[in-house]
Amino acid sequence: MKKISLFLLTGWVVLAACNPSMDVFEKNVSLPLQQWQAEFKPQLSFSITDTVALYNIFVVIRHTDAYRYNNMWIRATVEQPGDSALRTQQYDITLASNDKGWFGSAMDDIYEHRALIQPQTKFKRQGEYHFTLEQTMREDPLQHVLNVGIRVEKVKS
Length: 157
Prior knowledge:
Layout: H1 2-17, E1 24-30, E2 35-36, E3 43-48, E4 55-64, E5 71-79, E6 86-94, E7 96-97, E8 101-102, E9 105-107, E10 110-121, E11 127-135, E12 142-143, E13 145-154
């Protein structure tokens, strides 16, 4: 009886994990030597199949407590499927304030920020979307940055 229950539970978990629609996508890229060189431009791709749903798009940043600034300027470029035109947007991401300190979640001396850059976005086409991230701060390389990435969440209705 225990084996049958374990088998059914395992089967249920496997079927639940095989959800073909994307509710959340997140991909982060580790930065060599914990510094972000201006010429290092991580490229992240994900597929969209549901063009009716709305999505929230975040930039994910992980840095150490030694990061010297309250913000980070990031340029995000997206290439849509079937479109050769690139769309670029500059973002000033606030990471801290002088009176409250670091925002985001912390574990020891590492901070993670999920900055909402495009709320309630509707993707017009199905297919593979390509994001390129680049730092546009005056400091190059930008020290004490561990990871950068993109998170895409389907908006719950």
